[in-house]
Specification:
By secondary structure, the protein is an alpha+beta fold. The chain is built from six helices and eight strands; from the N terminus they run E-E-H-H-H-E-E-E-H-E-H-E-E-H. It has one domain: Gcn5-related N-acetyltransferase (GNAT) (Aminopeptidase, 3-Layer(aba) Sandwich). It binds coenzyme A. Coenzyme A (COA) binds next to strand 5, helix 4 and helix 5.
């Protein structure tokens, strides 16, 4: 269990299925993600849950996000971990929409970055985000990410192509951010 200020990140459990299934079938949630576009059947979501990594460098990390009073509100992960380059991709989804813009995403990302840099000894964490996902971009900037580039017309969705922004944060940059914050 990883403790943030507002959230806990914990291993995924079989009882997380119902929430996860609801979130991945909510288009208001998935339209912000660059990869989820089809309705998800229970058996496929179950397969996804069953295939959750054991949380290791080799397999990646997939964790549930809970508020401090134990409400399951989303998930966060590190994927495509690479031992030579010491890098990984980060993904996050807060599925409970009434919990958006309350600081939970920022706290979850900061908590996962502590694991990434201080425990897994990663050097760089990257992510992809749609340019109009202003909430997400604001969250990532607060966590030390910088815009690194733009993949032009990377995703076809809703009848048109969308650019995708690549953001990244280096270990030193995260360390500097942590040191600059008041105790
Ligand atoms: C993106 C996401 C993880 C952010 O988590 P969150 O808990 O909602 O965000 P936070 O409250 O920590 O931070 C968001 C910041 O953006 C600000 N914000 C919200 N809407 C905004 C907008 N339209 N324009 C600019 N800033 C905005 C908030 O005010 C907040 O900043 P503040 O704390 O300085 O006030 C979450 O909203 C989510 O999962 N959304 C759906 C799926 C998604 O977009 N995933 C990410 C894909 S890359």
């Amino acid at each position: 269990m990883l403790e943030g200020n507002l959230v806990r990140l914990r291993a995924m459990e079989p009882e997380d299925l119902e929430d996860a299934l609801r979130w991945v079938n909510d288009r208001e949630v998935t339209l912000w993600l660059t990869s989820l576009r089809y309705p998800m059947a229970r058996k496929d979501e179950q397969k996804w849950l069953d295939g959750a990594p054991a949380n290791s460098f080799a397999d990646g990390v997939r964790l549930a996000i809970e508020t401090k009073d134990g409400k399951h509100i989303g998930g966060i992960n590190l994927h495509r971990t690479n031992p030579e380059d010491r890098k990984a991709g980060l993904g996050i989804m807060i599925g409970e929409k009434d919990h958006w813009s309350n600081g939970y995403g920022t706290d979850a990302v900061l908590t996962l970055l502590k694991l990434a840099f201080d425990e897994m000894n990663l050097h760089r964490v990257w992510l992809q985000v749609f340019p109009d996902n202003e909430r997400a971009i604001a969250c990532y900037l607060k966590c030390g990410f910088r815009e690194e580039g733009r993949l032009r017309q990377e995703v076809f969705q809703d009848g048109r192509y969308y650019d995708v922004i690549v953001m990244g944060v280096l270990k030193d940059e995260f360390g500097a951010l942590q040191n600059s914050e008041p105790e």
